[in-house]
């Protein structure tokens, strides 16, 4: 199979992208832009996010009990760029951002369209990415009166111009 054939197939799907944040007990915090994520079970409800092994957020997530998965509104490309193009090992991506502590010390971006926090249930190695399977414990979606609630979520196509910030 040609890699271009697979790229053409995935381009048709244009899934949402997510910002995943992690906080470890030792005070480390990190976050990254994620293009591979999906609900993976109905009963019990579970969601998997795939983190790159090259990403600093992956290393922090290994020590975290929970991860928070955020959908960004399409007009917040700036947040996607911050979490996708900067390296958490070199930059505090949360500095100057609106965020709050969520359940069990989770990091919640208040400008997200929606978010959920999940306890790490398991991890699966998939090659250069590892799936963190999450058991959701809390979720929030912006209220209908909020202007952002009427916006679509930022997609992989929208974020295609962002160059990954993790070390090569």
Automatic annotation (TrEMBL):
Domain Flavin reductase like stretches: 6-162
Transmembrane parts of this sequence: none
InterPro entries, A to Z: Flavin_Rdtase-like_dom, NADH-dep_flavin_reductase, Split_barrel_FMN-bd
Superkingdom assignment: Bacteria
Keyword Cell division in record: no
Keyword terms, alphabetized: Oxidoreductase
Pfam families reported for this sequence: Flavin_Reduct
Coiled coil regions in record: none
Protein name per the record: Flavin reductase family protein
Organism listed in the record: Streptomyces huasconensis
């Amino acid at each position: 199979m040609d890699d271009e054939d697979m790229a053409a197939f995935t381009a048709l799907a244009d899934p949402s992208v997510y910002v995943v944040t992690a906080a470890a007990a030792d005070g480390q915090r990190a976050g990254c832009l994620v293009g591979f994520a999906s609900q993976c079970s109905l009963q019990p409800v579970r969601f998997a996010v795939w983190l790159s092994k090259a990403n600093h957020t992956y290393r922090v997530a290994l020590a975290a009990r929970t991860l928070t998965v955020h959908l960004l509104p399409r007009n917040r490309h700036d947040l996607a760029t911050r979490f996708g193009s900067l390296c958490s090992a070199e930059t505090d991506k949360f500095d100057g951002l609106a965020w709050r502590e969520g359940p069990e010390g989770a990091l919640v971006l208040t400008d997200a369209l929606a978010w959920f926090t999940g306890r790490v249930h398991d991890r699966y190695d998939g090659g250069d990415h590892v799936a963190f399977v999450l058991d959701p414990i809390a979720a929030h979606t912006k209220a209908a009166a909020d202007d952002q609630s009427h916006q679509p979520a930022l997609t992989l196509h929208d974020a295609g111009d962002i160059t990954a910030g993790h070390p090569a």
